[in-house]
């Protein structure tokens, strides 16, 4: 038993080290991508974008995002009681409503921007928790840690690139234009939910 425990511990340590190296590499590439994009716009435009981003953060309230942790716990309960695919689909719909309200809101504080940011936190929690559950359900137990680590790395890289691109879009166009682009990804979540639901049902029937 001691030998088996030692082998398992060594395997887990090797796996953790491997994921740490991959995470550092992807983080470095994400930083390079954001830095390259930021440098490509030029010094004058960078100053304009920074000023515009500062105004956006000052004018748009962020308090609704503080409830994200509580919402995530409630979403986890919803996934357990229903299905991850259904929650993912609902999250895509909620994100579309969030983008509509926030994108159409006037400048400054308004009821629509408060509602849009609240729905944004809710939809984000529903989509991420449901997607993580689907990954855990479908991945083989022998490679579950590797699959989850890869999914987290891809999500972090997408967030880094998306954050840099969002600043450019808001600076060059408007917040409403950014909401329109983001709506495309909400539609992708809906398509993924339909596909995941079919895959789960197919796997259940095969089992």
Could you explain the architecture of this structure?
This protein is 87% helix and 0% strand. With 207 residues, the protein is an all-alpha fold. Helix 1 (2-40) packs parallel to helix 6 (144-172), helix 2 (43-59) crosses helix 6 (144-172) and helix 4 runs antiparallel to helix 5. The longest helix has 39 residues, at 2-40. The protein is flat and about 60 Å long. The two termini are 33 Å apart. The relative contact order is 0.14.
Short summary of the structure?
The protein has 207 residues and is mainly alpha-helical. It is built from seven helices and no strands.
How would you describe this structure in keywords?
mainly alpha; about 210 residues
Name the shape in a single word: flat
Strand content: under 5%
Kindly report how far apart the N and C termini lie: 33 Å
Contiguous low-pLDDT stretches (5 residues minimum) are: none
Secondary-structure content class: mainly alpha
Instruction: State mean pLDDT (0 to 100 scale).
Output: 76
What is the count of β-strands? 0
What percentage of residues falls in helices of 4 or more residues? over 70%
> Radius of gyration, rounded?
20 Å
Written as H for each helix and E for each strand, in order along the chain, the element string is HHHHHHH
Strand count, sense and closure of the main sheet?
Answer: none
Total helical elements: 7
């Amino acid at each position: 038993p001691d030998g088996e425990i030692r082998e398992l511990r060594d395997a887990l340590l090797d796996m953790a080290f491997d994921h740490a190296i991959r995470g550092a590499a992807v983080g470095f590439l994400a930083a390079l991508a954001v830095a390259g994009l930021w440098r490509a716009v030029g010094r004058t435009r960078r100053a304009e974008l920074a000023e515009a981003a500062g105004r956006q953060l000052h004018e748009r309230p962020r308090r609704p995002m503080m409830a994200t942790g509580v919402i995530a716990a409630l979403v986890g309960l919803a996934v357990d009681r229903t299905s991850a695919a259904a929650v993912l689909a609902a999250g895509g719909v909620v994100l579309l409503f969030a983008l509509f309200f926030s994108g159409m809101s006037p400048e400054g504080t308004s009821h629509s921007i408060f509602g849009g940011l609240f729905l944004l936190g809710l939809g984000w929690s529903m989509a991420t928790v449901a997607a993580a559950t689907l990954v855990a359900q479908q991945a083989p137990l022998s490679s579950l840690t590797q699959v989850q680590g890869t999914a987290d790395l891809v999500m972090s890289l997408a967030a880094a690139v998306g954050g840099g691109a969002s600043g450019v879009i808001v600076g060059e166009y408007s917040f409403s234009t950014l909401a329109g682009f983001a709506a495309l990804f909400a539609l992708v979540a809906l398509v993924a939910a339909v596909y995941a639901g079919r895959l789960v049902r197919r796997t259940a029937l095969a089992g």
